[in-house]
Amino acid sequence: MSRAAGTFTVTGGSEQTVREAPGEVKLTRVSGTQRFAGGIVGEGSVEWVFCYRPNRSARFVGFQRIEGSIDGRSGSLVLESTGDHEGGRSKGHWRVVTGSGTGDLAGIGGKGSFEAPGGSEVTYELDYQLS
What distances in angstroms separate CA 9 from CA 34, 49, 102, 110, one per listed residue? Predict the structure, then answer.
């Protein structure tokens, strides 16, 4: 298994409330774009659903698409993304969606993690294999 590590910068985003009512959790839809550097070089886009708890922390789930290269191999892939957000910080996990790799990344599999301490720069690691 190989490891790609580096940073990505959040380059844009929006959040729309899907459901909010007194005494209930708040659901939102979050869209974003990123620019990757390090082991992954390229552009990313993400669609998440956030579930905000009464204490304002949140759990999120979604899909993140990356187009570019991983350790010099060009193509695209989709990652299933899950995590938690609290106090401006986010931590999450990735799993490569089977069959989503294209180009030199066809057949890619793996999992990883990311951490955003606040602000637009996020660190990541992706452990992957190509079949």
Answer: 5, 20, 23, 22
